[in-house]
Amino acid sequence: MAGLIRWRDADSKKVLGLDDGSVVRLIGWIFTKRVHGNKVFYMLRDRYGYVQLVADKDRLGEKFSYALDVPVESAVAVEGVVKRDPRAPGGVEIHLNNIDVVAGADVWPITPSVAKSPETMFDLRHLTIRGPRSRATLLARSALVQAAWEYFTSNDYVFITAPTFITSAVEGGATLFELKYFDRKAYLTQSSQFYEEAAICVFEKVFVIQPSFRAEKSRTRKHLTEFLHIEAEVAFADHEDIMDIEEELLKYIVARMDELAGKEIEYVRGSRLPDLDSRFERISYDEALDILQSKGVSIEWGEDFGADEERILSMEFENPFFVYGFPTETRSFYHMDDPNRPGVTLSSDLMAPEGYGEITSGGQRIHDYKYLVSKIKRMGLNPEDYGWYIDIRRYGMPPHSGFGMGVERVLRWLLRLPHVRDATLFPRTPTRLYP
Ligand code: NSS
């Protein structure tokens, strides 16, 4: 489609670069269509936004009946004259000299009654993603990942990728997806952490952004079976250092998302993003337990927080906050225990406020060979299942820490989405494997 001038930003005079009366050619999709006497009003949608088109019978002549018939969601190429009009959305409309359908559309199946059923909307996700809310959400998601990428690369982290087919659990056997790998058994990865740990002995600071998988049957608003995992691992860093890094990363992400996708975020969220200037509070697991018990939750020391506990606890906060010092029994075997407090790990979760709960989880790893083997045995696991992971500890493995952040969890909080499935293009949950 060479030679076509692309619309850039419906709000920006500058980018359109054309004054009242200039002729533009645009390509995009007919988002809405309204017939009013001898005029047809369309909203054209493209990568950059929306603009109103007007097909006028006097101007289009014979082509007007063709214009009348253009179905919604057709891809079109149009030519017209720019007219500034404060009443038009975005303050400008294009009065058409010509319209050509590049790719026609059947009758659009998403009617108001279909839109009332969230399940049907997800059955039609290949089409419903074109709606303004999904569009804005997915642009914000792209901005989130771009921001994370920028943060890591500008701080000297090296991007690596880790295998998806793996042989043993990182985060416990209960949520492993098992599959046939020719004549052997394999699993889908739950986290790239162990591969990152191998890589820090080359690069010191590494990160991954790739899917993780959890055979998570619990039907909550925060669990997907496939999610986008931002993970980082840092050599010579202790637990305090990694909390500082997580805090700095999240603050960078939020500020940068506002720059990259502020308008889209405001459209979905209803307001600008929160200002995260103040230091994130850090409360101990014990303090969190006191808060929960004071709210009438029956939970004993040593139990992990479920979705309800996280919701109740995070309702008490207006800013993200860390909960640190989780009991050993609630955490995976690789966590280092606190030398000052037996039974407690050097680990933490970063919680989003206002009921959203956990968005990252991290901590300091065991870097000592004998200590790791004995902890694996103590937790009832078989060291043979973790051969290479343990082996790294024989060759100059320094103290190190890391964390994982769920992209959909962060986006759900920032955009106030009802469910994490709204935060991804084609969600996977226990009941959804299509489209
Ligand atoms: O299981 S985690 O709490 N921790 C790990 O996987 C570590 N091995 C990460 C690391 O240290 N490199 O998951 C980390 C984050 C968690 O805080 C959530 O934000 C997200 O990953 N997460 C999920 N998001 C959506 N759906 C599901 N099921 C899910 N599980 C974890």
Number of helices: 14
Shape: elongated
Q: Which residue ranges are poorly predicted, with pLDDT under 50 across at least 5 consecutive positions? A: 1-15
* Cα radius of gyration in angstroms: 26 Å
- Total strand segments: 16
Order of helices and strands: HEEEHHEEHHHHEEEEHEEHEHHEEEHHEH
CATH C-level class of the largest domain is Alpha Beta
Give the tags.
disordered N terminus; BirA Bifunctional Protein, domain 2; 8-stranded mixed β-sheet; 435 residues; 31% helix; 2 domains; alpha+beta; binds 5'-O-[N-(L-asparaginyl)sulfamoyl]adenosine; OB fold (Dihydrolipoamide Acetyltransferase, E2P); 5-stranded mixed barrel
Q: Can you characterise this structure?
A:
- The protein folds into two domains: 15-103, Nucleic acid-binding proteins (OB fold (Dihydrolipoamide Acetyltransferase, E2P)); 125-423, BirA Bifunctional Protein, domain 2 (2-Layer Sandwich).
- It is built from 14 helices and 16 strands.
- The chain starts with 12 loop residues before the first helix and ends in a 20-residue tail after the last helix.
- By secondary structure, it is an alpha+beta fold.
- The strands form three sheets. It has an eight-stranded mixed β-sheet, with helices on both faces. The protein has a five-stranded mixed β-barrel with strand order 1-2-3-5-4. The protein has a three-stranded antiparallel β-sheet with strand order 7-9-8, with no helix packed on it.
- Helices cover 31% and strands 26% of the residues.
- The structure holds 5'-O-[N-(L-asparaginyl)sulfamoyl]adenosine.
- The site of 5'-O-[N-(L-asparaginyl)sulfamoyl]adenosine has 25 residues, from β11, β15, β16 and α14.
